[in-house]
Amino acid sequence: MTTSLTGANTAIKTVKKPKVSQNRRKSRELVLKAVYRNMMNTGDMKQIILDAQEDPDYHKADEAYFKRLLEGVAGKVSELDQQISIFIDRKLEELSPVEHAILRISSFELMFDSSIPYRVAINEGVELAKLYGGIDGHKYINGVLDKVAATARPQEFRK
C-alpha cells in the first residue's frame, strides 16, 4: 500500500497494489489456457502468448510470471510428463486434457521453481482443477501432486 501527502490540506491518498498471489493465480489460469490450447492445436508459442495477451484478464496477471511459467512448462514437457506418468493410474493420453495441463503446470512449479512453496503449488493446481476440471478432478490432481512433491522436494515435504 502506498501513501502520499498532497496539497496544502495534506490529504492522504491511499493506492492499493494488487496482491501478488492474485496476480500469480491469474497468471496460472492464463498459462492453463495456453498449455491446453497448445496441447489441442500444437500452435506457435509466440502466437499463443499474443492470444493470451488478448484475454480480458491479462492485465490482472503477473506478466513476467506468466511468461516464465509458460515457457518453462513448454520447455520441460517431456520431463514433466515422465514424472506425472509415474503417479497416475492410467496412460497420459487417457487423462482429461485440462487435468493433464494442470498437472504439467503444478509439476513444473514443484520440480523447477523452489521459490514457490510446495503446498502453494499443490493448492493452486487444486484450485485450477476446481475451476476448470471435471467433477472431483481436484481430488485426483491433489493426490498426484502430493506424490510429485514427495519426490521433487523430499526435505520440504517431510517437514
Oligomerization state: single chain
CATH superfamily (homologous) name: NusB-like
Rg estimate, integer Å = 18 Å
Number of helices: 8
Major sheet characteristics: 2 strands, antiparallel
CATH architecture: Orthogonal Bundle
Fraction in helix: 55-70%
The residue ranges in which pLDDT falls below 50 over 5 or more consecutive positions are 1-18
The averaged pLDDT comes out at 87
| Run of helices and strands | EEHHHHHHHH
Between the first and last Cα atoms, what is the distance in angstroms?
A: 33 Å
- Give the CATH class: Mainly Alpha
User: β content, as a range?
Assistant: 5-15%
- The best one-word shape is globular
Do you know the CATH topology?
N-utilizing Substance Protein B Homolog, Chain A
- In terms of structural class, how would the helical and strand content be classed? mainly alpha
Number of strands: 2
Major β-sheet strand ordering: 1-2
Integer tally of domains: 1
Describe the protein.
- With 159 residues, the chain is mainly α.
- It has a single domain, classed as NusB-like (N-utilizing Substance Protein B Homolog, Chain A), CATH 1.10.940.10.
- The chain contains 8 helices and 2 strands.
- Strands 1-2 form a two-stranded antiparallel ribbon.
- A hairpin with a 4-residue loop joins strand 1 and strand 2.
- Helix 1 packs parallel to helix 3.
- The two termini are 33 Å apart.
List keywords for this structure.
2 strands; mainly alpha; two-stranded antiparallel ribbon; 159 residues; disordered N terminus; 8 helices; globular; N-utilizing Substance Protein B Homolog, Chain A
